TrEMBL record, chains A, B, C, D:
Protein family (similarity comment): Belongs to the NAGSA dehydrogenase family. Type 1 subfamily.
Catalytic activity: N-acetyl-L-glutamate 5-semialdehyde + phosphate + NADP(+) = N-acetyl-L-glutamyl 5-phosphate + NADPH + H(+)
Chief site of localization: cytoplasm
Pathway listed: Amino-acid biosynthesis; L-arginine biosynthesis; N(2)-acetyl-L-ornithine from L-glutamate: step 3/4
Descriptive protein name: N-acetyl-gamma-glutamyl-phosphate reductase
Enzyme class: oxidoreductase
One Pfam family linked to the record: Semialdhyde_dhC_1
HAMAP family recorded: ArgC_type1
Reported function: Catalyzes the NADPH-dependent reduction of N-acetyl-5-glutamyl phosphate to yield N-acetyl-L-glutamate 5-semialdehyde.
Localization terms from the record: Cytoplasm
Protein EC: 1.2.1.38
Amino acid sequence: MERVKTAIVGASGYTGQELVRLLLMHPGIELVAATSRQEAGRSLGDVFPRFRGMPGSELAFIGPDPDAIAATGAKAAFLALPHGVAAEIARALLERGLKVIDLSADFRLRDPQVYAEFYGHEHPAPDLLGEAVYGLPEVRSNAIAAARLVASPGCYPTSILLPLIPLLKAGLIDPATIVANSMSGVSGAGRKADIPLLFCECNESVRAYGVPKHRHLSEIEQELSLAAGDKVTITFIPHLIPVNAGIATTTTAMLKPGVDAAAVGEALEKAYADADFVRLLGKGGCADTKHVTRTNFIDIGWEHDARTGRVLLMSAEDNLGKGAGSQALQSFNLLFGLEPMAGLQLV
Amino acid sequence: MERVKTAIVGASGYTGQELVRLLLMHPGIELVAATSRQEAGRSLGDVFPRFRGMPGSELAFIGPDPDAIAATGAKAAFLALPHGVAAEIARALLERGLKVIDLSADFRLRDPQVYAEFYGHEHPAPDLLGEAVYGLPEVRSNAIAAARLVASPGCYPTSILLPLIPLLKAGLIDPATIVANSMSGVSGAGRKADIPLLFCECNESVRAYGVPKHRHLSEIEQELSLAAGDKVTITFIPHLIPVNAGIATTTTAMLKPGVDAAAVGEALEKAYADADFVRLLGKGGCADTKHVTRTNFIDIGWEHDARTGRVLLMSAEDNLGKGAGSQALQSFNLLFGLEPMAGLQLV
Amino acid sequence: MERVKTAIVGASGYTGQELVRLLLMHPGIELVAATSRQEAGRSLGDVFPRFRGMPGSELAFIGPDPDAIAATGAKAAFLALPHGVAAEIARALLERGLKVIDLSADFRLRDPQVYAEFYGHEHPAPDLLGEAVYGLPEVRSNAIAAARLVASPGCYPTSILLPLIPLLKAGLIDPATIVANSMSGVSGAGRKADIPLLFCECNESVRAYGVPKHRHLSEIEQELSLAAGDKVTITFIPHLIPVNAGIATTTTAMLKPGVDAAAVGEALEKAYADADFVRLLGKGGCADTKHVTRTNFIDIGWEHDARTGRVLLMSAEDNLGKGAGSQALQSFNLLFGLEPMAGLQLV
Amino acid sequence: MERVKTAIVGASGYTGQELVRLLLMHPGIELVAATSRQEAGRSLGDVFPRFRGMPGSELAFIGPDPDAIAATGAKAAFLALPHGVAAEIARALLERGLKVIDLSADFRLRDPQVYAEFYGHEHPAPDLLGEAVYGLPEVRSNAIAAARLVASPGCYPTSILLPLIPLLKAGLIDPATIVANSMSGVSGAGRKADIPLLFCECNESVRAYGVPKHRHLSEIEQELSLAAGDKVTITFIPHLIPVNAGIATTTTAMLKPGVDAAAVGEALEKAYADADFVRLLGKGGCADTKHVTRTNFIDIGWEHDARTGRVLLMSAEDNLGKGAGSQALQSFNLLFGLEPMAGLQLV
């Protein structure tokens, strides 16, 4: 079978690096372009010593020029760029016939006004929002398979949405009582030369940040509202912890009056019976990030706090994996009709 | 001034070790006994190489014999023992005229039935519960100063109680909506040879545990109920993160209808205006454990989530410091009329 | 192509776990047996949550019974057992027609007296030493390919031998001046419930240990002596550092009089021109463990200290990878005529 | 007793921060000035949240103006500045009558040509080199006590010099065979916004760097040569490991022919019998950084490798403590006739 020629635009950050890793190992993909303004001319192996010696690692970075990318014969491109920047290059690549999987926030929101509210500037390409598909494969695989433009979800949203959506759809919990606390590894903050991201500043430290209105709330609430059939507003508190990778999220909500706690487990099992990458831990299962790092799995456990009537949802994923790169690849497999687990059977 | 002769019973665990550290540096204390069944006969410096060279580190461990402890002339004893074990030795030392500061859970609960419910066995000394004082110095310094038996609070409770009590007393929040998420360093689990506490099991890992009914809930709810003037039941989710020391807690609750968010800041400021060891970070302050480790400070910030009506309380302390050893020492200073910050001006 | 049925004996430690990971992803291997006395009856996925959801992870552990292992149709077995224990089961499996790749120290030494000197007891199977092949694939691939019993090298030896052997063979350095300092991740100490391996004991700590006569010196010196054509004795100092995986080794030695430093680079390049898994960093290259973890690569850089006449060799590998599991798999590929990089193209 | 008014020039880096910590707790010092170009106007507590609530933490940073510093009445100043910058301000403060303890490299070398060779530019104040005292208190306490200008040693040098100097003075080892391998925490690299110092770049990583001619070699060899009475040149390999603080150094050297290994222990014991801050671990003692962090102690153990004739010296210190801030404070106590352990009895 011929491998799908594919590009990564913005390949020098942590998410880009994870995409390079995944694509070099994917049996159905040929990585034909990796872009980086700063690293143009250097090979993947030179910039990321980890990749030296792997077939494909001799590929040289190019600048983010749409024509140059198209000239490689790429049929698809992953965008791992800052929001705002991604929209422009997405349009250019779509015009040149590529399918685009965007890992930025640019196409995740249906409503450009919500984008402006949360990101602080006008949406750069509102005309494309209509066709973009929010790429949560467990929720809308058919739409992803048919899309030209996939907006791959953020790391926090994935860890919050997958446990909650089945419960909201089944009407088991009171949406007004949802509180989500997440703990994220430092790679989630990106590969930036900032003092607060130094080893000595992060090691032996844990703290909340970005409260009360983290940008990811916009996409979280959009998708929860779709699932609930009504507008949902939640409280979300992200925390930074000293690990390289991984997000653990604990979400609590009140069960609706009369709901039997067992219904929670049933809703999750029904929703994810056929989901390759959702691993249900059952009642009492406390998801641990160490079991999911460098995979596309998300582990979900739950508990019932009978004393207060709350359900506890505990999820764990790799923020660069199921929360970014490998989830985007999962959408790619759908887009190109590849085996769902192709290139993702990694542990 | 003569230094107060003091003993540490159970000095070979992490909390005991922290007490040794603090007492060796305290200008008003002479450490005259440190007990450990396993280490009896060896000096503090031999067992804990960190202490060698410090005046006092040549003291040899003795077994936990009440008569031997009393024979050293000790006027007070810190107990850093497992629950159930502490009660017995506490009684023996009280009978021999020592004041006792117990860091176990044995005397924290007023109701022996709650103890039995949460700890799984009958209370070993119910007759002593009446005189034991729950030793949160910011809440009841006078009672501590007059006590013979202080039950020093646990690490999670301290980080949850200090932010919440002023708000409950002022009637600002709905007690039924309280959810507390804590992230604790590994030392909180003790110095035990358990596989899950190995470096390779904890490093690059984060997970919830002990849900939905952690033992510390019993003392948390007792004290919250006292503050609220009514029975309070909350949801509490502890998480284990890869740091040696430190607890960060994020607590959320709905403001009562009509309450202005500014009242939260005012209640905290009023409560802790004269508290030496509570540092208020104000609105938007995200407490970070790295600023409090090895100190007796607790940092508290808060935020208002106007979209949902919740208040967010973010606290950070050292689980072995303000959450255990140094808080017990703070009570000691009260018990013996020493300067409040004596031996605790450490950063 | 039919996959080779394979067993892992002793699959519940860190090395066993890494072998499970590698074999589940290997396209040419079918894992048919995994043994563990303690975990018998439980599935791979139950014992190691990381593996759940992977094809093959439903396999149940069995006890270490040679007949039961042979009954699975296994053609080969990896042994990840303590030294002393491995020899016995190796013999039993060889008798049942399996090829054996032993990751313990039992068959690494040619001389049973050296074994007794370093391991403190008589060799358990001296008659098998004659046919065992010390499985350093870069040094003796043909012998490995023809072997029935491969003794896969330890983690420290691999990191020391691969840089040094070409220099000794070329006669560039004075063997009497070799000093090797290694820094190893904690997983190298195994998955044992020991106080010194607790998170709080290892984190924020670095120290030497096992001096002056670490057990691995025996195999290091055996192989160096073979390369030098004369008995070689070196100084080796291992250190424990707070990382899960990875070994960095810095080895120094005096260049022989008249040797041009450039000859060092040439000798390395000549030796490893065709080596898939040795990545040469050249002069000035400081190997970093973060680029090799979870791979079978070893990175080797070198430097010349013109002021003293010493050459510095800096190598990095994953102690569970090229230093244990994946290197054993590299030998497996040779034993069964598979593609050299099969199952090892991981980054 | 009146406290000595003291300034810290360059107080916003990691070394400066450690000096602030130590001076705030020192009973004989009043911190009257802390300088930082960037933080001028902000208080110590604002810039370093750890210090809030400590007496003295309300002091505001000022710019590095010599007149302003002198105007505070400061009798002494610690300089925690980059090399090259320190010399200029040192001169200005000396002229204004202050004693100066410089923690940069500017006054450590007696020979300005060696400075130029290792630091790449002309020495900025060669006329001051004559009176500067290399401030290793265990080696020249009298000279320090009488000095006006103390050049406090670097972190690597301290960990290498203290074990070696007694052996060289006693003529026990062959200076030409000395090889020192050090492992340093990340704080040693300073508080700079550099990609290689990010958490995700340092965590789960270990590597050599700065070979073969690290700048600190210049002062190491100067002091070793003084001890040996002859020019000494050594090999030194620093490594970066993922801890915040601490340096472990393992130094090897050949015993001179006929030297009994026991003489090593005797030489160390004789040299440091009265040294408050050197803790000898004896033969077989493997110094561990976790026992010395945040103290002024250096732990030194040794071993004899009888097979090769080498002695192994294993030392551990805090790179910001005995390797920087607290060692400078140790010199301060000498300069002002304070108790040797004043302000340094910290564990």
